[in-house]
Amino acid sequence: MSDNYIFVEKKDNIATIYLNRSEKRNALNYDMWLKISKLTKQCDEDSGVKVIIFRGRDHTAFSAGADIGEFKTLRYTAEGADKYNQATLDAEKIIMECKKPTISMVQGFCVGGGCEISLACDFRFCDESGKFGITPAKLGLVYNLPGTKNLVDLVGPSKAKDILYTGRLLDASEAKEIGLVDRVYKHDELEAKTYNYAKLLSENAQFTIRGAKYVVSKVLDGESEDTEEIAKLVLDSFETDDYREGVRAFLEKRKPVFTYS
After folding, report:
1. DSSP H stretches of helix in the chain
2. Using CB atoms within 10 A of its CB, is residue 140 exposed (0-12), middle (13-18) or buried (19+)?
3. What is the pLDDT of residues 86-103, one digit of tens each?
């Protein structure tokens, strides 16, 4: 059954990874975290995929967080908790280090592990039903460093502390106001707006997008000057077929057709 809780669909260079456990508000168990890692890797390595979207299968929830049942089984001991935590950290790392743009499309609850997935993505779009929270303070747990860093990078240390200390839920309006989400759309617009944005990214130069994603990650890690690797990346872009196509298209006043995948 767990295999059906996470699945992927691909269309027009866009891969959608669905959380499909609506009867539990897409609560995440250990096997689901493993599947998220596996599918994200597959999409990242697939030359036919240029953008990855994470979403709930329906509008009921993105994910309400951890599967409570595992607190009395796998996560009841420190050893089991370590195994579970490693699975979440691995999935988070794979999403963060994915070479391709990632978008979380949020409806309803995006809490705990669900918020962790969303924070690891490049972009967060939601509708007015979005509710965001990170709730270890309600359980006596400590949130991991990668997830905390993602949160601080987005909203700053003071607001991150507010979210972590209180464990409260933020509605879509407040989440947008503090920078936790990028865009809020009406319910009947969210899907089209999200996929149109993904299509825009898929039509742009992929070497540029992946290079920009890498450079931004280095800025967030504290780099302030070009490294040898980044300098090479910049110069390599001038040698690509896409650069030549971009120049030709600009001079010919037409839309470029990029081929790098």
Report:
1. 2-5, 30-45, 78-96, 113-120, 145-155, 157-166, 172-178, 190-203, 206-220, 228-236, 241-251
2. exposed
3. 999 999 999 999 999 999
**How confident is the model over 208-233, as pLDDT tens digits?**
999 999 999 999 999 999 999 999 99
Residue 81 has a pLDDT of: 76
0.85 surpassed by pTM: yes
Question: Averaged over 121-130, what is the pLDDT?
Answer: 98
Render 181-238 in DSSP notation, one character per residue. Answer: SSEEE-TTTHHHHHHHHHHHHHHS-HHHHHHHHHHHHHHHTT--S--HHHHHHHHHGG
H or E stretch including 63?
Answer: strand 61-63
Domains annotated for the chain, with CATH where assigned, are 2-201 (3.90.226.10), 205-251 (1.10.12.10)
Q: At what angle do helices 145-155 and 157-166 cross, to 10 degrees?
A: 130
Distance, CA of 33 to CA of 204 (rounded, Å): 31
